Amino acid sequence: MDNVVLKTNDLNYIYHDGAHALKDINIKIMKGEKVAIMGPNGAGKSTLFLHFNGLNEPTSGNIEIDGKKMVYDKKELLEIRQKVGIVFQNPNDQLFAPSVKEDVAFGPMNLGLTLEEVEQRTKEALDLVEMGFAENKPPHHLSGGQQKRVAIAGIIAMKPDIMILDEPTAGLDPHGVDQVLKILNKLNEDGMTIAISSHDVEMINDFADRIFVLKEGEIIGDGTPDEIFADHDLLETANLKPPKTAELLKMLKENGLDVDINKIKIRDCCNEILQAKKN
Questions:
Q1: I need a surface site. Which of 2, 5, 60, 215 has the fewest CB within 10 A?
Q2: Which helix (H) or strand (E) holds 119?
Q3: Do 157 and 264 fall within a single domain?
Q4: Nearest CA to 40 among 245, 241, 243?
Q5: Taking the complete model, does pTM exceed 0.85, yes or no?
Q6: How many domains does the chain have?
Q7: Residues 77 and 130 in one domain
Q8: Is 254 found in the same domain as 116?
């Protein structure tokens, strides 16, 4: 249990209109994991993520951060938000300062750090996302991909243990997607736990260590990408398509090739096909 950094216990959330958005959610996220919450639009992914740093309070159930139950008072929430940083789907919900540099510096400034420490954190965060060149530009003058990287930099500057990203690649072109994933993988290599939400199965297949499948507010699947994407019945239930590699392996298997349909990662899939040809 020492490695569990975020845990939900029978988490339920009911909106004021009576809509039951989250139903008995039980998940554990381990230190250093790259986790994806996958599901169609309206599954409850964003609602769930807003609970992870206390922006939403459960109707029932609770959340634990590093084994400590979340308490919803100002002091406790400030500590939680230093540990758990959230990047919203739309950068415009997060970026508000006149310049990129001021925006990234806002979080550290509110931690009561020295000016020198704030400057250092801001520079390091902008350098990591390769946006130092834009430090004096207004955020709304940037492209969508650049705005996303600045929003991520604003959370990096807070030095959280866990970063939560809601649809981090939504609306980005392929180059923008690659840039964001490169940043997230680097943060993870440096020890940060990453949780993303998405319905982009190709991106999740390439990125995640573990996947939770969410449908209509309920967790209906939990496993590695190979396990989840090889379960075609589960994906159909969740109204999701498998990655192209999963479809290819399934087709080859049905046509008599001796391939392991669980080898969903692109490199593993290629190796399976090459091995099958040799045999």
A1: 2
A2: helix 115-128
A3: no
A4: 241
A5: yes
A6: 2
A7: yes
A8: no
Interatomic CA distance for residues 219 and 202, integer angstroms: 20
Task: Name the token pair of 74.
Answer: 């100002």
Comparing CA positions, the residue from 163, 164, 169, 162 lying closest to residue 147 is 169
Task: Find where tokens 């190979």 sit.
Answer: 226
Residues 135 and 271 in one domain: no
Residue 222 sits in the same domain as residue 255: no
* Cα atoms found within 13 Å of the Cα of residue 23, Cβ hemisphere only: 12
Length of the chain in residues, anyone? 279
3-class SS shares of the chain: helix, strand, coil, % to 5: 45, 20, 35
Residues 34 and 119: their CA atoms lie apart, in Å, by: 29
Domain assignment of residue 23, given as a range: 4-242
Say whether both 200 and 231 belong to one domain.
Answer: yes
Q: Which residues touch 119 (CB under 8 Å, ≥6 apart)?
A: 105
